[in-house]
Amino acid sequence: MDRSSLPDMELVIRTMAETVVANEAHFSQLDAVVADGDFGYSLASGFSAVLAGLDQFDRGSTGSFLKKVALVISSKVGGASGPLWGTAFLRAAAVAGNKQALEPADVVAMLRAAAGGIAQRGGATLGDKTLLDALIPATDALEAALTASGDSIAAVRKAAEEARRAAEATVGMIAKKGRASYTGERSIGSVDAGAIAIAVIAEAVSAAWSMRPTVQENTA
Residue 184 and residue 70: Cα distance in Å, rounded? Predict the structure, then answer.
């Protein structure tokens, strides 16, 4: 896999933000099945603010860029999602540090750190029917694909495919965290909105990554 530059990271963040905003209603509808239905609205509020200020974010390093994303998300996303997603970006920023370019191992480590931050902040683990049930399997798939071939486009695609599979599999789980947990066994039969959001974002990032302008130069 080629090294990821700061413009690559900006592409990922912009794609994430645009995807969240475009899916505001969809994510809220999913959340409304067993929770209060504000997930999509809350997340879109934060990522709309990211889009609005993206051109002014600190680009001194990947870490400083992601730290700004984290601060905006934390301050603009309401409910439980703000602290969780903000912590995820903050942990990823800490791993990236002062680097201008990231090796494949850095990207995997950032995703692991993000998942760890979410788990710690929310007290969740795999099987609790949260976004971790898509994020962790997707990260595992990314790492395995990178190890096997080093092809970044194929690896990101594999991660997106696994995110979708894992997110859909939450339909059979009992929610153990958040408002959805109040419904107990009635949460079985519906997918987790956060996990689906991870899948939708991963699919959008995969499409954008395969078409990024530097792909031919970096993978030659």
Answer: 32
- Give the per-residue pLDDT at 218: 41
> How far apart (Å, rounded) are the C-alpha atoms in residues 131 and 198?
7
Q: Which of 18-22, 127-131, 179-183 has the highest mean pLDDT?
A: 18-22
Domain boundaries in the chain? 4-219
Per residue in 150-206, pLDDT tens?
Answer: 899 999 999 999 999 999 999 988 876 665 554 555 568 789 999 999 999 999 999
> What is the Cα gyration radius of the chain?
16
Quote the CA–CA distance of 5 and 62 in Å, as a whole number. 8
SS3 102: strand
Predicted local confidence at residue 217, as pLDDT: 39
Which tokens sit at 84? 């969780």
How is residue 43 written in tokens? 């997340």
- The torsion region of residue 103 among left (phi > 0), alpha (psi -120 to 50) and beta comes to beta
Closest CA to 98 of 156, 128, 68, 59: 59
Using the 8-state DSSP alphabet, how is residue 174 labeled? P
Q: Distance between CA atoms of 166 and 134, rounded to whole angstroms?
A: 5
Which superfamily does CATH assign the domain made up of 4-219 to?
Answer: DhaL domain (1.25.40.340)
Classified as helix, coil or strand, 101 is: strand
